[in-house]
Amino acid sequence: MPYSLIELIGDTPLVESRVLNQNPNVRLLFKMEGHNPGGSVKDRAALNMIRSGLERGDFDKNSKLIEATSGNTGIALAMIAGIYGLNIELVMPENSTMERVQTMRAYGAQVTLTAADEGIEGARDYAELKVKEEGYIMMDQFANHDNWKAHYRSTGPEIWSATHQKITHFVSSMGTTGTIMGTSAYLKGQNPEIQIIGVQPKEGSRIPGIRKWPEEYLPKIFDPKKVDQIMEVSEDEAAHMARRLAKEEGIFSGMSSGGAATAALRLASTLEKGLIVSIICDRGDRYLSSNLFE
């Protein structure tokens, strides 16, 4: 029976670590979000933000949509906006990998590149100015509750069901924080003892998809009470682990997934027993023009 593309978003598989996890009393499962049609976990949030916004009448095919992105959300929004016949401009730092820029343009989005030294904050400032001065409508993944609700409705229930209600720890890198907020809300609702671990970069480290936000840019959807522990990883650790995931586990992913896996393995080494689920948020092929796999 044929499916529409958006029906293929979600229901991603769990893959167990067979090499990297050295604790025989702990199971470490990787949630393979690169299996979404747009190649990342952001397909879930993008679909819910667009579909819910259309249902509420927040925008229509005549609206000018805009969003700042570090890459994966932009690709997902470009794909889904195209399916719904919407016009969208995506704003990202000019040092973003060419694969990401070209993929967004292939889906029909307009891509605007902002100064690399201003980071994603500069892209967010640009988008907000277009909203204020030119009547654009911003999806605003950092404040849009449809972001985390996508994971409350899909990612959390999938993990709960696929682990047969045995999950003890959930590990996720934190960018917009939508994934960890929604998944935490669902899992804690099923079992308050489940531990939620967020991953941030160490001071001075730059890891695509993971941020330690300045106070003025902290995502409005973030609720610190939904995270039990925050682990910090370095840029080198995240890159090294991304390469190990590919070489030793056959899991081809980006640096944010390497960061989450670093934290998950660090956690696994400290537990007497448990079942950890760690998010592999995207695929490695969108990093091939960077030096990640050199």
UniProtKB/TrEMBL annotation:
GO terms for biological process: cysteine biosynthetic process from serine. GO terms for molecular function: cysteine synthase activity. It is an enzyme of class 2 (transferase). Its cofactor is pyridoxal 5'-phosphate. It holds the Pfam family PALP. The keyword Amino-acid biosynthesis applies. It catalyses: O-acetyl-L-serine + hydrogen sulfide = L-cysteine + acetate. Residues 8-282 form the Tryptophan synthase beta chain-like PALP domain. InterPro entries: Cys_synth, Cys_Synth/Cystath_Beta-Synth, CysM, P-phosphate_BS, TrpB-like_PALP, TrpB-like_PALP_sf. Gene3D superfamilies: 3.40.50.1100. This is Cysteine synthase. It comes from Pelagihabitans pacificus.
